[in-house]
Amino acid sequence: MKYLVTGGAGFIGSNITHRLVELGEDVTVIDNLSTGYLHNLNDISNKIKFIRGDIKNLKLLKKITKNQDFIIHQYISPRNGDIIHSLANIDKVKALLKYKVLVDFEQGIEKTIDWYKKNG
């Protein structure tokens, strides 16, 4: 499967990217590096496609999402981690790309907490 990870050079995004690579998936990362770091991806840089760009660039976003099976949205606004601003971007991205969300925000948080409880 083909995955696009937005914010994939950040802490959470890079860990997701590493796991996808371990699973043998085809991964593209887009990050503007405003809060993420390339060194988070150094050890897998030859196994992923990295695009330095911003998801607010709609022309670029349309181009790189064309053949993706899944988009894992980990972008967060650099404005002090403004989660509300980032969540608003999710709605814009969904509307623009006509992607449907497989797991909503609340379910995602719940599943993440459950996973950490089980796997410590």
3D structure, described in words:
With 120 residues, the protein is of the alpha/beta class. It has one domain (2-119): NAD(P)-binding Rossmann-like Domain (Rossmann fold, 3-Layer(aba) Sandwich). It has four helices and four strands, in the order βαββαβαα. Strand 1 (2-6), helix 1 and strand 2 (26-31) form a beta-alpha-beta unit. The protein is globular, with a radius of gyration of 14 Å. The relative contact order is 0.17. The mean pLDDT is 79.
Based on the model shown, name its key terms:
120 residues, single chain, 4 strands, alpha/beta, four-stranded parallel β-sheet, Rossmann fold
Topology:
Layout: E1 2-6, H1 11-22, E2 26-31, E3 48-52, H2 58-65, E4 70-73, H3 83-97, H4 105-119
Parallel strand pairs: 1-2, 1-4, 2-3
Can I get a quick summary?
This protein is of the alpha/beta class and 120 residues long. Helices cover 42% and strands 17% of the residues. The radius of gyration is 14 Å and the shape is globular.
How far the N terminus sits from the C terminus, by CA atoms, comes to 28 Å
Helical residues, percent:
40-55%
CATH arch. level architecture: 3-Layer(aba) Sandwich
Task: Provide a count of the helices.
Answer: 4
Multimeric organization = single chain
Mean pLDDT: 79
CATH class: Alpha Beta
Which parts are unreliable, with pLDDT below 50 for 5 consecutive residues or more? none
Radius of gyration: 14 Å
What would the principal axes of the Cα set say about the shape?
A: globular
